[in-house]
Amino acid sequence: MTFCAGYVDAYTFIVRGNTLVAGQAGNVVFLSVELIQNNVSDVRDKLLTLIAFIMGVFLLTIYKEKLRIVKKSILSLIPLAILSIIIGFVPQTVDNIYLVPPLAFCMGLVTTAFGEVSGIAYNNAFMTGNIKRTMLAFGDYFRTKHTPFLREGFIFVSLLSSFVLGVPIMMSIFYLSMLFA
Predict the structure, then answer these.
(1) Long-range contacts of range 83-92, CB-CB < 8 Å, 24 or more positions apart?
(2) What contacts 140, CB < 8 A, 6 or more positions away?
(3) 1: pLDDT confidence band, cut at 50, 70 and 90?
(4) Where are the domains of the chain?
């Protein structure tokens, strides 16, 4: 999931108007800059993306038991997979407003459905909290020598690495596609 978040954020940032669909803290910063610079269309895109992400989190929280996503988080990937396939065929000339907010909604669903790995809570879309948790786990291990902390630290390293790998892979695909365009 962290790979997916890094990949999709890289895609929307590079190709779709410098907007992040998973990293909403970044969107709030970008939104503030756009407001100050009076870029109305960019404000619209980032605000609708933020609202769409919020709605994805909110609606899944309300309906996850009815949709049986509590035990089958993988089901939350279906809308994202379908939308990603569709977007693959949409020309870059299509306005970002039709693609980025729906992607953000799907990332809100996925972020809400996937929040734990091996019994350890994590966030699949945001790096800051995961970096903090990594350093806390390693710090606790060095302080106490308890191996569960070391294991937790390595789990977070793998999550962070997965997120980071999503970005260059997306960029490689993007630049390769430009060679053949």
Answers:
(1) 84/8, 92/15
(2) 146, 149
(3) low
(4) 2-179
